[in-house]
Amino acid sequence: MVRDIVDYIKKENQITKEQLKILLELSEKSDIEYIMKEASQTSKISFGNNIYIRGLIEFTNYCRNDCYYCGIRNSNSNAKRYRLTDEQILNCCDIGYELGFRTFVLQGGEDTFFTDYKVCSLVSSIKNKYPDCAVTLSIGEKTKESYKAYFNAGADRYLLRHETANEKHYRMLHPEYMSLENRKRCLYDLKEIGYQTGCGFMVGSPGQTVETIYEDLLFILHLKPEMVGIGPFIPHKDTPFKNEKAGTLDMTLKLLAIIRLLCPKVLLPATTALGTIDPIGRELGILAGANVVMPNLSPSDVRNKYSLYDNKINTGCEAAENIKDLNNRFEKIGYKILVSRGDYSK
Ligand code: SAH
Prior knowledge:
Layout: H1 2-12, H2 17-25, H3 29-47, E1 50-53, E2 55-60, H4 86-99, E3 103-108, H5 116-129, E4 134-138, H6 144-152, E5 157-159, H7 167-173, H8 180-193, E6 196-203, H9 210-223, E7 227-232, H10 249-262, H11 272-277, H12 281-287, E8 292-293, H13 300-303, H14 323-332, E9 336-338
Parallel strand pairs: 1-8, 1-9, 2-3, 3-4, 4-5, 5-6, 6-7
Helix pairs in contact: 3-10, 5-6, 6-8
The structure holds S-adenosyl-L-homocysteine (SAH).
């Protein structure tokens, strides 16, 4: 039965709710391994044994929003706030370039200090200095005009997880003044402007069900993003969700595999959150069909402060400076890190 479902997803690039339910409820190790094997073969057809890398620069943890799950939410008065200067950010790029990174991801809270003018000048400084590199922004919800301005300044990609495609679930995760409608509007604007666009969601967030996940998959199939970011929800001690359970390794691996089978070419990271809930989480993510990793290029003294969830790993192989160790780990499972922009290709 599992084989029939996998064949159907591969052939049609579609999935029914019943099929999703069956796959998510599988508990036999051999069944889970089968889906992972099929997904990693699909990934190999698209990317060979190459793993794309992105240098993640967490450049500010100030945020005007108050998402219930997130450790840098505005009302967390325990968060030690920081923002990097342009000089510090460019310095991260210098270090990253030396290490072989050809994509820089600027991620942060929604920090009003970084006006459109500042974001544009930052993006163009990076692009001027490193014209052979891609710049990805992940700075939240903006107007279409702002997105256009960043794109014209040279930004190539934009990551904005939709978080959940179900209205009620969205309300459970976010304060009143945020809306799923605006989140989706942003994603469609980004696509229209011409960004390689990434959506995604947390696995096991409070209130998530097979139904909401099914809606997430339908949304992905409709948006046709170039990138999909998923990783386990992990509670943060200073948030309203501090006592909630974390998402599981198994569920995350199954969903990575399902997304790979549905979208053979999509850029799919094995996330830091996955590496946080399991010591070999990212390797397993690759073996479930992921093809991207995003080592941390932020200055080491701010890494602890960009605390979205508890116990975020920050000194081992996910640190950009330890890229060789990471490569060794991937070589053990038959993969290698590629020095390239790693663009989406149809
Ligand atoms: N402000 C930006 C970047 C957010 S941080 C934006 O709004 O897009 C990047 C992602 O981290 C979020 O989209 C969310 O899915 C994830 N995240 C936040 N808190 C988390 C938690 N407690 N556990 C796991 N992932 C979390």
